[in-house]
Amino acid sequence: MPDFFYGKPLSPSVFPPDTDQKKKQLGDFFAGPALPPANAEKVPQIVRKLNEMYPGIQKWGSLGMCWGGKIVSLTSQSGTLFSAGAEVHPAMVDPNDAKGIAIPLCMLASGDEDAKAIDAFDKALTVPKHVETFGDQIHGWMAAR
């Protein structure tokens, strides 16, 4: 697993972000070390390195949870090195990202995600897809929570 934050992840004590201070810390982290476009730019280099290390692997897929879902959206655009992508309880869902996705995509949302954004994202996808919301689940249901 690549260390996108160079050993300085957001402290688990920020979760849940239920105070103004925690919300600011989370916002600052997403606007700084976790800025999705900057981190998405790192992914092709990682995949190329993995191709060198494991030349027998012919196809790669990507799975992103929460913030990683946004990274999957950004790295699944035209010219991607991935063959399929999956987003689980995705964060920062943007229907504009869906328009450029060029590979099959699965999105599994929780009841905490913005239903309108998920629906618009689903409608904007033009590739084979499976988009489903598990309304009785919380954000993080397939990861640490």
Description:
The protein is 36% helix and 15% strand. With 145 residues, the chain is of the alpha/beta class. The protein has a 4-stranded parallel beta sheet with strand order 1-2-3-4, covered by helices on one side. Strand 2 (84-88), helix 5 and strand 3 (105-110) form a beta-alpha-beta unit. The two termini are 19 Å apart.
Strand-helix topology:
Layout: H1 20-31, H2 36-40, H3 43-53, E1 61-65, H4 67-75, E2 84-88, H5 95-99, E3 105-110, H6 115-124, E4 129-134
Parallel strand pairs: 1-2, 2-3, 3-4
Write out key terms for the chains shown.
15% strand; 36% helix; 145 residues; 4-stranded parallel β-sheet; single chain
Q: Distance between termini?
A: 19 Å
- What is the succession of H and E elements? HHHEHEHEHE
Helix content range: 25-40%
Low-confidence runs (pLDDT<50, min 5 residues)? Answer: none
Largest sheet: 4 strands, parallel
Number of helices: 6
Structural class: alpha/beta
Mean pLDDT: 95
Strand content: 15-25%
Question: What is the compact description of this entry?
Answer:
The chain is an alpha/beta fold and 145 residues long.
